[in-house]
Amino acid sequence: MADKYTVRVTGKNVDIAVGEDQSVLDGALRANQWLPHSCTQGTCGTCKLKVLCGQVDHRDSPEYTLTSEERDSGLVLACRVTPRSDLVVEPLGAVDDRVPHHPLRDHEGTVVVLDDIAAATRRLVVALDEEMHFNAGQYAELLIPGTALARQYSMANPPSEARLLEFHIKLTEGGAATEGWIFRSLAVGDRISLRGPLGQFHLVDKVEGPVILIGGGTGLAPLKSIVQHALAEDLAPELYVYHGGRREVDLYDVEFFRELDARHEHVHYRPVLSEQDWGGATGMVTDAVVADFASCKGMSAYLCGPPAMVTAAVKALKRRRMSPRLIFKEEFTVAPPLPDADAAAS
Amino acid sequence: MTITPDFVNDITIEELEADPYPFYERLRKEAPVAFVPALGMHLVSTRELCEQISRDDENWPAVISAAGGRTFGPGALLNTNGEEHRELRDMVEPHLQPTAVDKYIDDLVRPFARERIAAFENDGHADIVAAYCEPVSVRALGDLLGLDDVSTDKLREWFHKLSVSFTNAAVDENGEFANPEGFRPGDEAKAEIIAHVDPKIDKWITEPDHTAISHWLHDGMPEGQTRSRDVIYPNLYVFLLGAMQEPGHAMATTLAGLFSRPEQLERVVDDPELIPRAVAEGMRWVAPIWSAVVKRAARDVTVGGVDLPEGSIVMLTYGSANHDEHAYDAPSRYDMDRPVKPTMTFGGGKHACAGTYFANAVVRIALEELFESIPNLERDTDHEVDFWGWGFRGPKQLFVKWEV
Q1: Distance to chain B for A286, nearest Cα, Å
Q2: How far is A225 from chain B (nearest CA, A)?
Q3: What is the CATH number of the domain that holds B45?
């Protein structure tokens, strides 16, 4: 372990070993030392740390997320930065230790389902060799074979199914993971490597008010996990699930959610199409929410989808006076352009 | 003394109260230390000179403006120096130390803030100054002082009356007050305050409690003795004016600033951790205590190239210092993303505001609660934003609306 440095987080009495090609976040999460983070791609800035002592390499930390002034003042992105000496660091955001956190692990598994479920959309189910414990709403990184690349997908299964992970995958034109692998060569029976869990988009504790979940496209995945978990644990008094797509062929799991809606009085499912007249709701999914609720005061929301949808949903919910503190967001982020040096290190 | 330019000779208090910025912009450029006949004293307008004089207690002891002295009477913190000033600071500071404030501030501010919001949140519109900023500001300090039995509206009335007296600064050619009637509101307020507080002081003398005024009476005094009312009252007026009015100004000013930058407003609503930064910029943009601090030359001095004889009186204008083009780019624009640079908002030197931490905490909590309950707050564009004041400055009214 000569190539490992010791990283100490202020307020935690634990020394974390971090390799010189490993990100500080990766090291901390593997040591089950929670640090705030969201995208793990250097784009959201959630994982900013202040380095109180020691030398670092910022590697590919983007200038738009971490400005040179911030670097000069000792700030780093935990998901990018790697140590060049022993470090003492301090998280900028509050470390939420009230919810359980599960350590980041490498996993292997076998593809057991690979189905087309909507236009250019596949359901991938992986049977893991060992359980992966996670909070409903979190994501994992699938490692693309033969490359140093990893791509992020939310688990759609509830945490109770810790060995059977379900992912919803949309084809990206030219995408290394989708066009180059999952929609081309991947087949049932293939072995697959992944690491997880990651992210802080989750529903863990019982909530008092109704919960509105809005998913755009495959943004439905973490919401499906959350809804199943909330039902199993009786976490929310009402669950309103909105799924937005352009045409009917973009929708999936319609029967699954219709059945939940029929079976549970407090589950409400509303698919909304923006480019097709049909028997159901039409228009932007966020407009449907605004039309359905006179006030969202006291409610909370889980939003997952393209950045424009998430932004519009936040605006719509604030218009209906939902507290921004209770709006939780997971945005699709664009994959980083260059191969990630540490992606294959683990 | 140098020749006074015409634009300085001609300026009136009314013009300054309406909008002091153009006049001070010219002062900073042409006459950073200028004698203003309408005020009977020199104005210091640049950041550098304001900072220098505020920190130099030896050459520049603090005095109170004539109108301020007429309003508060002798013995106010603002008008004392050396040992006497230190003793008064020791009297007021224990309740205002960060560690002390952190212990009580949430319970002091949040419940009342929520109660106020509940009273108007379903209306869809409000003058947020009268409905929220001023009430939260006065209630927080009123309860801390021990004036929990004085209504919010009465506290607001008192500080408004003290404020107009304190800034009734105009003098005639003989140096006499040009508008002696202007002190009447302050005198009325003081008579009411004394009538209300005197019996309470009687009680606190024999039955001390946790309130600030009770501590002012007892702390640091020999056994069996309490501080004289002559010490208590002038300083109570200082608190009732400055500390009651200014957090309200800071809240409303910050909101007005954020309304001018909708994308910054949205970020602050989404992330309440940005509120302190937004407030700091609000108070730079329009310093609540805009032009109220006065100092006296202890000896003959040269300042900003102007020779001033011993005894000369200068007024430091923090609102102008905070707009100094040498320190801030586009100073008249609200921009919470501008580089963080110290401001003169809370003064400097030994007389720097004792309530800085308290005031910041009150404003922060008030805005946290407001954005939490009404995240869709916007300016009602049917009304202009109506800033007023030269000694103290903030929006007189700020009309807001939201969808209900």
Answers
A1: 16
A2: 25
A3: 1.10.630.10
CA–CA dist A179, A312 (Å, integer): 29
Q: At CA B267, angle to CA B261 and CA B270, rounded to 5?
A: 140
Residue B57 lies in a domain: yes
Distance from CA of A320 to the nearest CA of B (A): 7
Provide the residue range defining the domain that includes B87: 6-401
DSSP state of B179: -
Q: Which residues pair with A4 in a beta bridge?
A: A19
Q: Do B371 and A295 touch (CB under 8 A)?
A: no
- Quote the number of domains for chain B: 1
Asked, for residue B1, whether it belongs to a domain, the answer is no
Q: What does the block give as tokens for A207?
A: 């909530």
ipTM: 0.74
Residue B290 in domain: yes
The answer to whether A247 faces chain B, any CB pair under 8 Å, is no
Domains located in chain A, CATH noted: 4-91 (3.10.20.30), 105-198 (2.40.30.10), 211-331 (3.40.50.80)
**Does the CB of A290 have a partner CB in chain B at under 8 Å?**
no
Reading chain A (346 residues) residue by residue, the pLDDT tens digits are 457 999 999 888 889 999 999 999 999 999 989 898 988 888 888 899 999 999 999 999 999 899 998 999 999 999 999 999 999 999 887 777 778 899 999 999 999 999 999 999 999 999 999 999 999 999 999 999 999 899 999 999 999 999 999 999 999 999 999 999 999 999 999 999 999 999 999 999 999 999 999 999 999 999 999 999 999 999 999 999 999 999 999 999 999 999 999 999 999 999 999 999 999 999 999 999 999 999 999 999 999 999 999 999 999 999 999 999 999 999 887 665 544 444 333 3
In the three-class reduction of DSSP (H, G, I as helix; E, B as strand; rest coil), residue A106 is classed as: strand
d(CA B53, CA B393): 22
